[in-house]
Specification:
The protein has 334 residues and is of the alpha/beta class. The protein is built from 9 helices and 16 strands.
């Protein structure tokens, strides 16, 4: 069984986890793609393939050709850059026997567009901070509020506003499509979930948010919290997630959790749920092989703490010559 990981970028942790999972299942190769020749995760892949930028009109065709050429059983995005492109490509991938671990195109767009996500959650009766289009602000808007990119990544394009004058300033200042969201005052948590290909939640592992930088968690601990497990399950199944995802929320009251974000991909703090027993890569390989898995909600190690650090990959001059080029006109010869 071969696995295609797209936009691998910095995700050495994900590549290594799939290499280990494949070895435990009897073999297979990890094919990693990225548009950068010096993406740190590429040297850790069994096969590294340079890809066009996600904005390139030929990106989807390149993914499909790569999956077909290397006989991949599944494809998984490692970042948020190509979520929508892969979700739209899922039927074509399925036609060649390759499972895309992403929800439908519509659900993926809900996740990418944070304003649409807030509206979807509200429609589903799932608590979320009051969130508005800047042209539809209510008279009873409660300050402080956040001006946030509708398609935000990490902590990019977020401005905290204490009153209407600051709100007007930052709405005029930003050139990005934005939304206005009332600030949560409770404690923030994340839940790493895994769903099967029918959208049923199999795992939900909650963690505390001890420290983050640039929107990425660098310190956190898995915790005993059945209420958060249920929040993760309910949100994942309402959206119809397929594969991994991360649900972020604030506990505003003992029995009220306001969901602020859902990412339909493997989380940035993935090594933490992995260490806590959430063997998501191995379970995804089983799903791609057609196996039926039983839910393991609540089955994880509590008190496992993550503390991330910087590391590096060094490339020799001319290293790019070793990367295979996939010629779409000559797929059988690459």
């Amino acid at each position: 069984m071969n696995v295609l990981l797209t936009c691998v970028g910095l995700r050495v942790d994900v590549v290594q986890a799939f290499c280990d999972a494949l070895a435990r299942r009897g073999g297979g190769r990890v094919i990693g793609t990225d548009s950068s020749l010096i993406a740190p995760a590429l040297p850790f892949c069994d096969i590294a393939v340079t890809a066009p930028a996600v904005s390139d009109p030929g990106y989807a065709e390149h993914v499909l050709a790569t999956a077909q050429h290397y006989d991949c059983a599944m494809v998984l995005p490692c970042s948020e850059w190509d979520l929508v492109a892969l979700a739209d490509l899922a039927p074509a991938l399925q036609s060649i026997g390759c499972h895309a671990f992403l929800p439908t195109g519509e659900a993926t767009r809900h996740c990418v567009d944070k304003l649409e996500m807030a509206r979807f959650l509200e429609q589903q009766g799932i608590p979320t901070p009051r969130t508005f289009d800047p042209t539809e602000l209510p008279a009873d808007l409660r300050y402080p509020v956040l001006v946030k990119m509708r398609e935000g990544r990490g902590s990019e394009g977020i401005f905290r506003c204490a009153d209407r004058s600051e709100l007007d300033f930052f709405l005029a200042y930003t050139s990005l499509p934005s939304m206005v969201q009332e600030v949560c005052h409770g404690t923030e948590y994340s839940i790493d979930v895994l769903c099967d290909l029918d959208g049923r939640c199999l795992d939900a592992i909650p963690r505390s948010m001890i420290q983050s930088k640039g929107g990425e968690q660098i310190k956190g601990t898995t915790i005993e919290d059945p209420a958060l497990v249920e929040v993760g399950r309910a949100v994942a199944e309402a959206l119809g997630l397929r594969g991994p995802g991360t649900v972020q929320c604030f506990r505003e009251e003992t029995d009220r959790h306001e969901v602020t974000d859902v990412n339909p991909r493997i989380g940035g703090a993935f090594p933490l749920p992995l260490a806590a027993g959430g063997d998501y890569p191995f379970r995804m390989l089983a799903l791609a092989a057609g196996e039926v898995l039983a839910p393991r909600l609540g089955e994880y190690a509590r008190g496992v703490t993550l503390a991330r650090f910087y590391h590096q990959v060094l490339f020799d001059a001319g290293h790019e010559a070793s990367l295979p080029q996939l010629d779409l006109a000559k797929r059988g010869e690459a």
